[in-house]
Amino acid sequence: HVQLVESGGGSVQAGGSLRLSCVASRSLYSGACVGWLRQAPGKEREGVAAIDSDGIASYADPVKGRFTISEDSAEHAVYLQMNALQPEDTAMYYCALGYRFGGYCQLQEDYYTSWGQGTQVTVS
Questions:
Q1: What are the CB-based long-range contacts (under 8 Å, 24+) for 39-47?
Q2: d(CA 38, CA 64)
Q3: pLDDT tens digits, 34-46
Q4: Of 39, 50, 75, 116, which has the fewest Cβ atoms less than 10 A away?
Q5: 76-110 pLDDT, tens per residue?
Q6: Cα–Cα distance, 28 to 17 (Å, whole number)
Q7: ∠ CA(5), CA(6), CA(7), 5° rounding?
Q8: Which of 64, 33, 65 is nearest to 50 (CA)?
Q9: CB–CB of 37/107 below 8 Å?
Q10: 117 φ, ψ (degrees, to nearest 5)
Q11: Element (H or E) spanning 60, and its range?
Q12: 96 vs 86: CA distance, rounded Å
């Protein structure tokens, strides 16, 4: 059972940047996906970005051009660089491990089986 630990959340002003980190307790299997999903108060959890073991990334439309997901397999880590943050980006951000479907990483939470504890991002 893999454990995921997120860090890097915080409070920033609109237009600012944050970099989230997700470190796994072991290396990921081929075909695995690591996703970032977020949940704002009163809203459903939504996928933000995901990356597979080949480095192929997927993004949700609201963050395209602003967020970048990357991985460092040697460190068992996945990062989410968030630029041009807006108040609507305020949420708890979760790192999750899942699997590809249809040949690429999905952003729906149904495809993720292991979750981190989350890190809060607040944009004012």
A1: 39/91, 39/92, 39/94, 40/88, 40/90, 40/91, 40/92, 43/91, 45/94, 45/109, 46/107, 47/106, 47/107, 47/108, 47/109
A2: 15
A3: 999 999 999 999 9
A4: 75
A5: 999 999 999 999 999 999 999 999 998 899 999 99
A6: 28
A7: 130
A8: 33
A9: yes
A10: -85, -15
A11: none
A12: 23
C-alpha to C-alpha distance for 70 and 81, rounded to whole angstroms: 8
**List of residues 6+ apart from 117 with CB closer than 8 A:** 5, 6, 94
Locate 82 and state its tokens: 């968030």
| Pairing relationship of beta strands 77-82 and 104-105 according to DSSP bridges | unpaired
**Tokens linked to 12:** 């920033």
Q: Two tokens at 35?
A: 């996703």
pLDDT at 28: 77
Please give the sequence-ordered ranges of beta strands (E in DSSP) within 1-124, or none if there are none. Answer: 4-7, 10-12, 18-24, 32-39, 46-52, 57-59, 67-72, 77-82, 91-101, 104-105, 112-115, 119-123
